[in-house]
Amino acid sequence: KASTRLVVMGAAGVGKSSLISQFLYDKFNERYRETVEDLYHEEFEVNGGTVHLEVLDTSGSFSFPAMRKLSIASGNVFILVYGINNKNSFDEVVRLRNQILEQKKDQNPAIVIVGNKADLENDRQIEKDDVELLSYQWNIEHFETSAKNKTNIDRAFKEVLKRAKLPTHLM
Ligand code: GDP
Ligand code: MG
């Protein structure tokens, strides 16, 4: 059975769990619940067959570097999330991208970068143009999203699934 694993990574509190919850269940929670690690399974019917998508929601704290390494090893496609209101979280995205490319250099992994909390424009610390320039050089798609307002989330997830060669027109 065809199965693809999407791994969502990024610093703690940037909105990884919220993005997944909006994408899969159309739900948003204002309260913060720390994630250890959650795995979601979704099945999509395609031309009489079934495509199996797994979404791995990770903890951003990574007290265990070995756990991060395992998360990367298990993934086919990656969404790297930062908060547009948090410069440090963008630096973490840069580190994560380096680690993924280093660890999976023979597999040409698909990566999409997401700047979440776009609704917090007044607290912006990362300019969109700067990230666009960098992601262009990296040949990586970049989206600004708001899990709170549900903006751009489907576009971001569909882009990464397209890069994983899943039939996104059915979703
Ligand atoms: P995670 O640690 O990366 O999984 O982050 P969470 O998804 O748990 O979200 C952390 C906090 O940020 C929670 O209180 C969420 O309600 C909030 N949050 C998540 N996404 C957004 C967003 O797009 N805008 C705003 N304003 N808050 C958000
Ligand atoms: Mg979480």
From TrEMBL:
Part of the full-length chain shown: 19 to 189 of 220
Record membrane topology: Lipid-anchor
Coiled-coil regions, chain positions: none
Keywords of this entry: Cell membrane, GTP-binding, Lipoprotein, Membrane, Methylation, Nucleotide-binding
Natural source organism: Saccoglossus kowalevskii (Acorn worm)
Protein name as catalogued: GTP-binding protein Rhes-like
Similarity field: Belongs to the small GTPase superfamily. RasD family.
Main location: membrane
Taxonomic classification: Eukaryota, Metazoa, Hemichordata, Enteropneusta, Harrimaniidae
Subcellular localization: Cell membrane
Domain of life: Eukaryota
